[in-house]
Amino acid sequence: MSITLLEKEGAKYIELGGGACPQIHPNIDLRQCYDTAGNPTVDIPGVSFEEPLPLQDEEWDAIYSKFAIEHISYPKIALFLSECWRICKHGAKLVLVMPNTDAQLKWIQEH
Fold first, then answer.
1. Prediction pTM value
2. What is the rounded average pLDDT of the residues 90-107?
């Protein structure tokens, strides 16, 4: 599967929750992770997605977040989404990738 965020020269991209395997830099996460060479993979560690993000308003052209939103407590998801809206420029893209729990459970039952 391939996702194209934007093809705009000079666009600013950010990943929320990339952890040890970020697809985009800067990568923001709660914990600092390291690659096999010992290099940090998280550019801005210590950020809880259940609190306001330490980022400026209307700064980013695209946000990518893979397998992070399901780790946010349900009552805080609205805050996370409003923070994504706040830090995006007008016309920005937000890509949220999350597991399909129903399909996973169905597969487990069948196997």
1. 0.84
2. 88
